[in-house]
Amino acid sequence: MPSKTFTVEGLVCIDCAERIRAAVNQVEGVSDSQVDYATGRLTVLLAGPDLPTEGIARAVRKAGYTLVTGRRRRNGTVPGLARFVLARHQTRLTVVAGLLTLLGLALVVASVPSWAQMALFATAIVVGGIPVARRAFQELRLAHSLGINMLMVIAVAGAALIGEWAEAAILVVLFSLGEALEGYAADRARGALESLLDLAPPLSLKLLPTGETQEVPVAKLANGE
Prior knowledge:
Radius of gyration: 23 Å
Largest sheet: 4 strands, antiparallel
Order of helices and strands: EHEEHEHHHHHEE
Number of domains: 2
Helix content: 55-70%
Distance between the termini: 22 Å
């Protein structure tokens, strides 16, 4: 059965990988798919000779990520934490939500009227919680499962309903921050793996049945040769 491997950008959690797999499996012409969270690789098993690249790319975008056709090579370079945060829309929202939460806590200490505190905390919840809520409903719609994102939505909504706006905002910020750090760590690991791949020689010696050796590209070698 023919297969094709792609790279998925922005993969930050194992649940995200399952969501991508569920979306890609719905594409016509795809028999099955597997997502390797550690490497960010999507392997698609095709049901026929045609490769529905556009359909796969749309499915990945539908799940909230970007498909890279071909193999992405970065020569092992990994951006610093600040650049990683600023380069991603979701992490920028986390920073804004964190600043709003800190400002709200400062108003609590300063005994500012509660409506002003609530306004800041509610804004922080909306800003930081939009990506979490989007992922939660994508998991429910695509993978038909209740993952950690949906649990966070329920927890934050419950805290807000009982009037604990500060706790709800802090919960959103800490969870989003944890997701961002997990994504950064995964990106560094992928960069390290790709730097190791750069050390692999492009050519190898193949042992022929006659006992002689022939220099061939490593990609053309089969198991046991």
